[in-house]
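Hi U.,

Before I forget, here's the chain from the pilot set. I'm dumping it here mostly so it's searchable later in email.
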Amino acid sequence: MFTAYATVPQGYTVHSAATPMSFPAGEAHLQVAGSPQEIPLYLYLTGADANEYMSAAMWIDYAHQGGHKVRALIPYLPGARQDRGVPFGAKVYANLINAMNADEVVCFDPHSPVMPALVRNLRIVDSSAVIAQVLRNKAGAYAGVICPDAGAKERTARTAAALGLPLYSAEKHRDFATGRLSGFTCEELPAEGRFLVVDDICDGGGTFMGLAAATGLGPDRLDLWVSHGVFSGKASQLRQAYGSIYTTDSHPGAANPDVAASITPLISHLI
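Structure:
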């Protein structure tokens, strides 16, 4: 979803008067109502719809032609998981973002360091402070944070430190040729207490179902935070394994009613 914001002479921040449209032939453009006296500020772009990226690029050009600098708030970097192999999806999407020509790009909890290194003028917002704020009244109920795999080690360590909780580690094996997951293990956990599993992305939920099975714990003792809730395929089965599921509005999939996640709006954390 693409939304653009601007300030008006009265001092308020409002939706920009320049809104997306398309010509009959399919080209993206903007429709500007009247002669707006606005100062473009930033745009908020969630999900991975290429058409919305084109609309965002048009809005940035509109802002620049008026002499204004703007930020592109893109919490979910599309292609961040395509950080290896052929085609090199992370680079293709990074080129698309760079072509938008924003004066600053802001993302949230990127999957790996690969794509952020390819995006110009990028500022990264870490997830640990957001998680700590969202769970500030619940952190005392947890006995620890669980890292689901080696790729999540650094982010879960930061989260555990922010919450003042011990960190426990799990492992898995992924066949990159097929995407199939196997070999889930988790270090021994305390006999009592509730645990928070933390990761960046949940797509179909296979990693987290496998982890839950490896711990031997049920929804009465497991909660889940994922920064980007795609929640596709069999993700609804997560309700069988996790009591509370937390995510953000960085991807439209977060609103999957069968997952019923608690969704944190990110825009105030990124501007």
